[in-house]
Amino acid sequence: MYEKITASSPWEEPMMIYPAIHYTMGGIWVDYDLQTTIPGLYAIGEANFSDHGGNRLGASALMQGLADGYFVLPVTIGDYLSYKFAEPKTDVNTKEFDDAEKAVQARIDRLFSIKGKQTVDSIHKRLGNIMWDYVGMARDEAGLKKAIADIKALKKEFYEDVNVPGSQFEFNQELEKALRLEDFFDIGELMARDALNRTESCGGHFRVESQTEEGEAKRDDSSMSLSR
Amino acid sequence: MEFNLKIWRQKNAKTPGHFETYHIAGIEEDASFLEMLDILNEQLIREGCDPVAVERGCQSSGPVSFDHDCREGICGACGLYIDGRAHGPDNHVTTCQLFMRHFKDGATITVEPWRSAGFPIIKDLVVNRSAFDQILQAGGFISVRTGSAQDANNILIPHDRAEESMDAAACVGCGACVATCKNGSAMLFVAARVSSLALLPQGRPEAHRRAKAMVAKMDELGFGNCTNTRACELECPKGINVSHIARLNREFLKAKFSD
């Protein structure tokens, strides 16, 4: 696989390895049944926080997907559903459904009404650069504060100048990307705020201000751990 | 590098499609095929017709729709028919693992969607592969809870048997086998699932039911049958062997005789 991608054989030349942010390392709170705080909504695999601590190593996501899917869910979801079969079907003609539909429609209409100059991908790449520069593996207070300000500014720019081509009444991948990017602004800012609040180094989160003399992660369980 | 791209454009399943040719320049040889399409789309959106131009008759089809997800060759979402080959001119790769260094500078590259009765076109290069999900729902699973892991030596499984099962399990369900097959057959896909489960003890209790149900569903959804040309094996990004089709046939026959 490596040779297919790089055209260089790892048997003959050293592998080129580069760390990259490619997922959020989970975090959704779940109970022992893997149910979130919303009844009936389960989060399994690497999306939840259950099996791993502050860091995840390669393939641990796969392990958690398998363990949750094979051992836990067949029992817990079945149990949840077994009580639901007796209940009448939910009526969709209610105010809640109407409001939800209107909110989604308004969100889509807004994106098409902007008619700006920049593509979704070009703005997405700039968000990626902010995250990479300031919310990567090593973080510090000044950088995180800058990241939060930059993300807010970029989000504002997105709502003023993004170009979502095509129409909403067809299969439209640019619309799909724009909707996702809207979410990425929020999760990006949330990650930066979280990293700013956590002044210790822990797991995959390394605060430059909190390190040992050898440059290793320095934890602060006395003020950061719930089980103190 | 620069290329002329002859790309299939189709508004939706009901509108007839056509080829459009685009020129693209400044592509690095280490760019992946999908990155090249991203750059093309960026270009197409920027050049896109404004509302005034549309009134004057501008008919740009906008950015090219194509499926992609992990871009690591493990999810099975991407799949393009490039220069007459599923996943393009490299062997044992998905489209996302195909790089522009495999093409000659200045070449004209033809890009089409998977073409098969079982995969109706949604738009441009995106096809509906939910038929694969329906085939899986017909029997590509184990419904018996086998309990927690027991002692490793209680049930002995020869190493080569486990390996063979894992080889079949490598199928990512991309559909290259169907697109390549002159009969539009999904046999390699179905065989990979049936064979992988039939080789291991967990899959045995339902092996007969599974083989019959999945083959019946495949036939019902308009996929053709197998005439042993082995073209699917050649184009499969995971190199799944047609011997699994032989095992599927065997499982199917055994099931029929035991009826």
In short:
Chain A has 7 helices and 2 strands, in the order H-H-H-H-E-H-H-E-H. Chain A is mainly α and about 230 residues long. In chain A, helix 4 runs antiparallel to helix 5.
What does this structure look like?
- The complex is a heterodimer of chains A (228) and B (259).
- By secondary structure, chain A is mostly helical.
- In chain A, 50% of the residues lie in helices and 2% in strands.
- Chain A is built from seven helices and two strands; from the N terminus they run H-H-H-H-E-H-H-E-H.
- In chain A, strands 1-2 form a two-stranded parallel ribbon.
- In chain A, helix 4 (120-134) packs antiparallel against helix 5.
- Chain A is globular and about 65 Å long.
- The model of chain A has no long low-confidence stretch (mean pLDDT 90).
- Chain B has 259 residues and is an alpha+beta fold.
- In chain B, the strands form two sheets. In chain B, strands 2-1-5-3-4 form a five-stranded mixed beta sheet. In chain B, strands 6-7 form a two-stranded antiparallel sheet.
- In chain B, helix 7 crosses helix 9.
- The longest helix of chain B has 16 residues, at 243-258.
- The model of chain B has no long low-confidence stretch (mean pLDDT 91).
- The chains are: A mainly alpha (228), B alpha+beta (259).
- Chain A binds chain B through residues 1, 4-7, 71, 74, 119, 121-122, 163, 165-166, 170-171, 173-174, and chain B through 11-12, 30, 38, 41-42, 45-46, 48, 62-63, 65, 73, 90, 92-93, 97, 99, 101, 122-123, 126, 145, 148.
